[in-house]
Design goal:
The structure is a homodimer. By secondary structure, the first copy, chain A, is α/β, with parallel strands linked by helices. Chain A folds into two domains: 268 residues, TIM Barrel (Alpha-Beta Barrel); 94 residues, no CATH class. In chain A, helix 8 runs parallel beside helix 9 and helix 14 runs antiparallel to helix 15. The first copy, chain A, is globular and about 60 Å long. In chain A, 54% of the residues are buried.
């Protein structure tokens, strides 16, 4: 594929396999490794665009499946595509919807042609095809879009995983064709299309999936189908199989990952981009990420604790509010508790990535990782320690 | 009563009966007439302290009844009283809890001694006495606190309203005594105590209530028991009976009011302070205040409307977001919709008060009021037009 206008990925420095890079899109310069907050329905839950700007987030993720169902592609397109609609001037990435249509199993019918699924809102029937999903994403207009893939659930058999890889490969080809056809049309913004590598937890299938996608020469690669319940060792193993095959001059995105310890593991092996709902989803249950590990501010002991959520954090929430106040807000069902906790935790991930980049630049990534984990895991067992 | 240290009310200018003033507390200088956002449980619902600062709110209101039940007075006191607990460095006013304990009728037993009520959280029994309510508020520590009053529901009989006035008078006396006793103790922050005028919709009872409270020489007066369902004409009439009796050099607070048209009516008659849950409560149902009247962004026509909530507004929400986006967020249950709408509407009231003050200063309040209402009511009948 032709590398799209207005985009660039520069590999600036490596420290072992860990990579410091810069991904430029028409809307932002994104330093990598980067954590992308998830804004499934066009907003990072409980936060607003200025909150993300305060954290210096340069990119966030929207979900094709959700925006397609509500408010619908017509409305988003008419309101200035995703950037205009969400009033977010920086970069946006959309996932293909593959993960969503496959994670509502039973309601869906998968064929080589595509997927027929039922809306989780109103039960109406819809078809996602590799061509359709590309067209939807071209119309929605994010900077970076994804091929339609079959995300096989875990656990699965090698046979089913192989069918998934073959379908993902065939769909990637059809997606590229559709992408280039619409490109010729000239009426869509410049966008960068990622291929998505599948293969479940089988090294040979991951290798096959990677090699097939490489033939299509995508300007960027995503690794999908991990962090879906498999043991962490298998996730590590799949990255170790896949990453050496990928070109060094293109960005690599590990989809849906993850915990801080997973991110460190993956950065060490050469991943550039991450996204995860954990910081916001957990925050809404009272669980936030801190330098010394997860912390639940709903605990009774927080009631008279005047310390910030994370004494090591300088975010606006930690500078201003106590655990006692946040616990109170949560106890009395004030949604401000959800927002403040989400702000802190998303900022935690964004700051961690900034620290990771600084460490790579100074060739001290491993030392940083060890130091981070030794503090992060001091209060409990940590799978990545 | 002695006027408390660190407090001052200056009457700067009058335009007819409308008053421009400045209320100084140890935490803020508050230009009056002022609208105080309501933060019942220690936060203005969906907003955070920095949101209020962005709007230049100088004071907000907390609820004695709610904070007493959760998190409890001990915790608030230990966490630096209400200012420390909520991390709000400017002024805070607390209501006495009278309205709350009387609005949960059937669960409460009222005697001359006080009220025994059941918590709406867990059904536990509690007693509020005039002395106890003062002590709770001294410990909570807001700048301005309220006497315990009997807020008679509407409609009621003159007999019951008279008992309410007599009780409120007796309780005010007991409250003052307790306040001064605790003042002598020296361990509480300097606070300003308001007496609350009752009397339902009966002019002679309002007059009686006012005269009795004047004997106690409060440093400020609240008018309670209005905006509880009575016809608007009666609210106006009660203000016209009461306000001429009050000293001009002390601030007057009309509790729980109200709609923009009510605020204009009351400013015209000499009220200095207002509070109301309307901007936040309505916003959470999709209804916001705009220069041309209430606007519901849940309406289907909003789906493709790229205008801001209020084209005449320069708040951060109106500068950044479209009706289409807010409608979408609301439709898909993103609480960010509640926050952004609440921000706009609270800011609407604060800006309206700023405009009112400018108009009074320039002796054009009546012209301002007429102009405001003619635009505000252009799309529908307006009771105050």
């Amino acid at each position: 594929m032709r590398y799209p206008d207005g985009f660039e990925f520069e590999l600036l420095h490596t420290d072992g396999q860990a990579r410091l890079g810069r991904l430029t899109t028409p809307h932002a310069k994104i330093d990598t490794p980067v954590f992308m907050p998830v804004g499934t329905q066009g907003t990072v839950k409980t936060l607003a665009a200025d909150d993300l700007e305060t954290m210096d987030a340069r990119i966030f993720l929207v979900n094709t499946y959700h925006l397609y169902l509500r408010p619908g592609v017509d409305i988003v397109e008419k309101m200035g595509r995703v950037h205009g609609f969400t009033s977010w001037p920086r970069a946006i990435l959309s996932d293909s919807g593959g993960y969503q249509v496959f994670s509502h199993l039973g309601r869906n019918k998968i064929t080589d042609e595509g997927v027929r699924f039922q809306s989780h809102f109103d039960g109406s029937y819809h078809d996602f095809t590799p061509e359709g999903v590309i067209e939807i994403q071209r119309r929605l207009g994010p900077d970076i879009i994804m091929s339609f893939d079959e995300c096989v659930p875990y656990p699965t058999t090698p046979e089913k995983a192989k069918i998934g890889v073959e379908r993902t490969t065939a769909w990637a080809k059809r997606g590229v064709k559709q992408f280039e056809k619409l490109e010729a049309d000239g009426s869509y913004p410049s966008q960068l299309l990622h291929g998505i590598i599948q293969g479940s937890v089988y090294g040979d299938l991951r290798r096959m999936s990677t090699e097939k996608l490489l033939e299509l020469d995508f300007p960027g690669y995503s690794i999908g189908g991990l962090s879906v319940g498999e043991p962490k060792e298998l996730m590590t193993e799949m990255l170790e199989v896949t990453l050496p095959l990928l070109p060094t001059d293109k960005q690599r995105y590990l989809m849906g990952v993850g915990y801080p310890e997973d991110i460190l593991m993956a950065v060490e092996r050469g991943i550039d981009m991450f996204d995860c709902v954990l910081p916001t989803r957990n925050a809404r249950t009272g669980l936030v990420f801190t330098a010394t590990g997860p912390y639940n501010f709903r605990n009774a002991v927080a009631a008279e604790d005047d310390r910030p959520l994370d004494p090591d954090c300088d975010c606006y929430v930690c500078r201003r509010y106590s655990r006692a106040y946040l616990r109170h807000l949560y106890s009395v069902s004030e949604i401000t508790a959800h927002r403040l906790a989400s702000f802190h935790s998303v900022n935690f991930f964004i700051r961690m990535m900034r620290d990771i980049r600084a460490a790579i630049k100074e060739n001290r990534f491993i030392a940083f990782k060890d130091q981070f984990l030794s503090k992060y895991c001091e209060n409990r067992a940590c799978s990545r320690e």
